[in-house]
Amino acid sequence: MAMDARKQRILEAIVALYANDGEPVGSGLLANYFDMALSSATLRNEMAALTKLGLLEQPHTSAGRVPSAQGYRYYLDHLIDAPKSGTLPEKDRRRIDDLFAAMDAEPEKLVPAATRCLADMTGCAAAATTPQAPDLCIAHFEVVQVGRYSAAVLAVTSAGGVRTRVARVDTGLTRDDAANLAQLLNRGLTFVAPQDLSPMLMASMVLAAGQRLAPVIMAAQALVTTGPQACLEGAQYLAKMADVRQNLGTLLEIFSDNEAATELIRPEGNKITATLGCDLDPAMPGACIVSKRYLAGGGLTGSVALIGSTRMEYERLLPILDYFAARMGQSMAGQGQ
After folding, report:
1. Does the keyword Repressor apply (predicted)?
2. In whole angstroms, what is the distance from residue 56 CA to residue 66 CA?
3. Which residues of the chain have pLDDT under 50?
4. What does the pLDDT read at residue 1?
5. How far apart, in whole angstroms, are the C-alpha atoms of residue 261 and residue 270?
6. Which of 39, 68, 83, 118 fits as disulfide partner to 322, beta carbons 3.0 to 4.6 Å?
7. Number of C-alpha atoms within 13 angstroms, CB side, residue 96?
8. In the prediction, which pLDDT does 38 show?
9. Is the domain of 112 the same as that of 70?
10. What pTM does this model have?
């Protein structure tokens, strides 16, 4: 039995109706949705056929139908149009523009702020990563004395971003120490790829600085090796979703590991990618992750995603995600302010 245009329209309608109230969709409700263009009998036959195809499920004998995981996958792969930012209502576009106009464009500040706004705007959890590039490295170091026993190590990346880490020096730190350390770091660790930070190189850096100042060298090493940082906002919205809340612990555990979280929300190419929770390892039944890549200029890219129920309002939410991703990249690149 093959899918035809009518079956596709019916599946699309059931996904939309089930997203509205979470109740199984019956033939009477479907008939009203189609303005009685199809009879209840015809709809019942088509729903039975979709059930045989594995695209619908019937929770109870007397109930209507709901999309199955396979049905959602078919819908996401074949029926939903690629979201266009132009389909976003003008009021939503202005709201998002106003949000970004008020944000600090520094990626480490912008990403959590934008992610929080995306979660509040959509009622889903939202996640994002700071931008990264394969050849990103540190172009310049500064070491600033912070009190008597601490040093702030500032690293400017080759893309213009700034990373910071504080190191404690138990024996105390002078301004001359800070200046000498900055010179040492700029000679030895600028434009060095993380994989080239050999134990021999780091041992020579510690030897040149002196053992008492080794914590500052270790802080600089951490800045060189820092990968994209992932953040999760709006977890409270998942706690309110009956079909998703059981996955909250698993999700929080994943986001305690930057590498795992970054991989979880990494999209395929430049299109929006939808991943059903049942396809993940570990599985998160009832959940869906939709993610989009953003372009921050200079070869830098990151990911932004919505995490919610499989019955989320895709037609409404995907254009919001698409435009958010575009504005994140533009803000980081200094455009569109």
Report:
1. yes
2. 6
3. none
4. 62
5. 19
6. 83
7. 26
8. 82
9. no
10. 0.79
Neighbours of 28 (CB within 10 A): 12
The amino acid at residue 315 is E
Looking at the domain assignment, is residue 337 inside a domain?
no
Q: Exposed, middle or buried: residue 157 (CB in 10 Å: 0-12, 13-18, 19+)?
A: buried
Specify the residue for token string 């930012």: 85
Structure tokens at 191: 């434009």
Shared-domain flag, residues 241 and 326: yes
State the pLDDT at residue 77.
83
Q: How many angstroms separate the CA atoms of 145 and 155, rounded? A: 15
Burial class for 156, CB neighbours closer than 10 Å (0-12, 13-18, 19+): middle
- Tell me whether residue 202 is exposed, middle or buried, using C-beta atoms within 10 angstroms of its C-beta: 0 to 12, 13 to 18, 19 or more: middle
**Cα separations in angstroms, 246 against 23, 222, 249, 281, 308:** 20, 35, 7, 15, 12
The number of beta carbons lying within 10 Å of the beta carbon of residue 62 is 8
80: which 2 tokens?
A: 């939903």
Closest by alpha carbon to 291, among 171, 179, 127, 122? 127
- pLDDT at res. 59: 83
The domain in which residue 48 lies consists of: 5-79
Region of 336 (left: φ > 0; alpha: ψ -120 to 50; beta: rest) is left
Q: Are 224 and 192 in contact (CB under 8 A)?
A: yes
